[in-house]
Amino acid sequence: MDITALPVWKKLQDLAGGMRSRKLAQMFAEDPKRAERYSLETPYFLMDYSKNFIDEQVLQALLELARETDLEGWREAMFQGECINRTEGRPVLHAALRGSVGESVTSAGQIVSRQVEVELERLKEFVNLLHNGGIRGCDGSPITDVVNLGVGGSHLGPQMAVEALRPYWQGGVRVHFVSNVDGAQLQNTLEGLRPESTLFLVSSKTFTTIETLTNARSALAWLGDLAPEAELLQRHFAAVTANPERAQELGIADRFTFRFWDWVGGRFSLWSAIGLPVAIAIGFGGFRALLDGAASMDRHFREVPLAENAPVLLALMSLWNCTFMGWPALAVLPYEQALHMLPAYLQQAEMESNGKSTTRAGEEAAYATGPLIWGQLGINGQHAFYQYLHQSPEVVPADFIGSVRPGHGLETHHEILLANLLAQSQALMSGVSRERVAAELRNSGLPAERVEELVPFKVHRGNRPSNTILLRGLDPQSVGALIALYEHKIFCQGAILQIYSFDQWGVELGKGLASALQPKLRSGDLAGEDGSTARLIEYYRRKNPGETLKVAG
Ligand code: F6P
Question: Model pTM?
């Protein structure tokens, strides 16, 4: 389907043209019900999308685009387990991990929901045993530290959720994360840990990722001569993977191998056994609550009409801003320390999904398929890059994310934080006019000449769109619902814009080149390399003489 040929596509382009001259603040002044009209509540959050360049015409046209591109059909196909990830020949069933697909959905002859429950039961037993001191190292010491070795989807989701749910940590067993093949991270993490009481969790869907496997080998070496290698692997290692055979080949015990399936995309795998670090940190009950929160968003997404559907509307706002208004980035700005990893998590979730330029028909997309996602904690950003958000010529739409209830008892801190969140989205929308700046400067007693001089520097054009998501709290259910909201938003954008959101061919090229280049760092054989790469390797070798390269394996 060529969506650009749809009449509604052209209509949206025309509407975008008209919207560019409108003023957001004026739209609020003209419609006292605007905030009510363009916001919605779910059990876990309020989502306010009123500070976008939309009106009824725009919204209706966006919804028409969603219908014309059969968003509802694609949504149902996903929940029914149809093979919607066609380039990889797989269904997309992360919703099954939180109990959101029926028993009729099968894969390789197995009822998916039953497979999920069996694995969850295994996780539960493992977590409980771990907390009861029943999992012991080679010398009989109870395991006190679990180090997750994994990268991308096998790292970002679990660490993001562990950090977000800090008030729910159970204590007893500490959880650590090593994602980088840069040995510094592994070394720093292992400092202060005792090999006798440390367990490594090798988390890798494919079990072929070089960063993770290299870290696993170095971790094994760190355990030293506590016991013969085979015993170390059986007692100090566990695996989470969709490729259990490879974990077995490495020597990890079957009872410590937790599996998930190829119908779970890596960046959507938090809800599977990949979430084991979360279950360890907050207990299995807490992990279930996280799944329940996500399941409630699944129900909302599947059942609520498009016009009141949170993920659909969030997707439509993003698509409107990026594809039609022409603003190619989206800043993710959490105002909760607990959510400090959310921008990094969403960067992978969204950019690995929709950062593509080929449509489902195999053709070049003639439109922007998704924004560049970036951001960090809003309050820190205020003292760093918000200058750009307020006064650069570029418009960067933003998602502000906060929580009504803090995860701590310092009420005043929380009020300051929330006031800042509200102030920033307001300032981005309203700006400050020339006239107001001039009046304020005059009132401060400055001479007219100086006022004239300073005015252009202090004007904020405003008119910069944003969404605000205010969670009821930072409890596991709310965090689960928030993550699932974004997952479904990503799905909607891809479905409407004709993108296969669940493959990631774009990450393969660099991986292949890296494995071809690694031996050249040692050999210095630069034949066939481009001039720049050859020059960099030559410098590297010149400054790294001798045999200082100690690469694991
Ligand atoms: O970076 C590409 C990628 O394939 C991601 O999609 C995935 O989350 C990550 O690598 C890790 O892969 P694995 O879990 O197979 O080690």
Answer: 0.97
